[in-house]
Design goal:
The complex is a heterodimer.
Chain A: H1 3-10, H2 13-24, H3 30-35, H4 41-53, E1 57-62, E2 65-70, H5 73-82, H6 85-105
Chain B: E1 11-17, H1 21-29, H2 31-34, E2 42-46, E3 49-53, E4 59-63, E5 65-69, E6 73-80, H3 84-87, E7 92-101, E8 105-113, H4 119-125, H5 128-143
Antiparallel strand pairs in B: 1-8, 2-3, 3-4, 4-6, 5-6, 6-7, 7-8
The chains are: A mainly alpha, B alpha+beta.
């Protein structure tokens, strides 16, 4: 809905790191996320809040715990804005090539 | 490209749509709408039955309706029938939550969980799967046009 919020949320390395953690394993508690960052609980909460406002993280209650899920839809909508289905396979082919070549050199 | 290192047994997808909850509900539960955004599937969902079929009437997904509360909440089970490998897996569960927001917006959240016994389904619906459906649903309701030509 609000691309500005998504770009702003993604502009911060700590917030991208939080999304990376959720991408590896989704549905984590604040305590789990906090344990992997050199940051206060309050700091992590603040970043999660920005991600939630941008719709990139969705909190779900499960019993007594609040779990955080990565929601990739806003990023997909930004993708759709500039990449239509005709250009997608060309973009994907180049992205695949880049990843293949870079993985070989690693 | 990126790969999910561990397939998620619970997946959550949300999107804001400029439409009323009633419009979103109808788009989810009726075949004329679903055909235009849900990978071509014709969905008919009533309080006691869930049907998702191709134009020819073949089952794409089967399930049973667990909760039916228009236009707010829909819960149903999910078994993909479009490949034998998927059909052999355990049933999983899909929850649709439709939340009216200010400014003529509706916040739609899809949670696909209980995927522990359906690892191939979990991979299939992640990434492109649900995102494509939600992106198409948003486009259809906001512009009246299908993402497909």
């Amino acid at each position: 809905m609000d691309d500005d919020r998504v770009f702003k949320a993604l502009a911060d390395p700590t917030r991208r790191h939080l999304l990376d953690r959720l991408f590896e394993r989704d549905g984590r508690t604040l305590t789990e996320l906090e344990s992997e960052l050199e940051m206060s609980r309050f700091g992590v909460m603040k970043h999660l809040r920005v991600l939630e406002d941008a719709g990139l993280v969705v909190p779900r209650r499960q019993g007594r715990e609040k779990l955080h899920f990565l929601n990739p839809v806003p990023i997909r909508l930004i993708h759709d804005r500039w990449i239509d289905k005709y250009t997608e396979h060309r973009v994907a082919a180049l992205a695949d090539l880049k990843h293949t070549l870079e993985d070989q050199s690693a | 490209m990126s790969t999910v290192t561990q397939t998620q047994t619970a997946q959550v997808y949300s999107v804001f749509i400029r439409a009323t909850p009633q419009q979103v509900w109808e788009a989810i539960t009726t075949p004329e709408f679903s055909h235009k955004y849900f990978h071509g599937a014709r969905l008919t969902i009533t309080p006691d039955s869930y049907s998702s079929v191709t134009d020819g009437g073949a089952d794409l997904v089967t399930g049973s309706v667990l909760e039916f509360d228009p236009p707010r909440r829909l819960v149903h089970t999910w078994r993909a029938m479009y490949s034998p490998e998927l059909a052999a897996e355990d049933e999983s569960r899909v929850t649709w939550e439709i939340d009216q927001r200010d400014g003529g917006l509706t916040y739609l959240t899809v949670t696909h969980d209980q995927l522990e016994g359906a690892p191939l389904t979990a991979v299939g619906v992640s990434g492109e799967g649900w995102m494509h459906v939600l992106s198409g649903l948003k486009t259809l309701l906001e512009t009246g046009e299908s993402l497909y030509v």
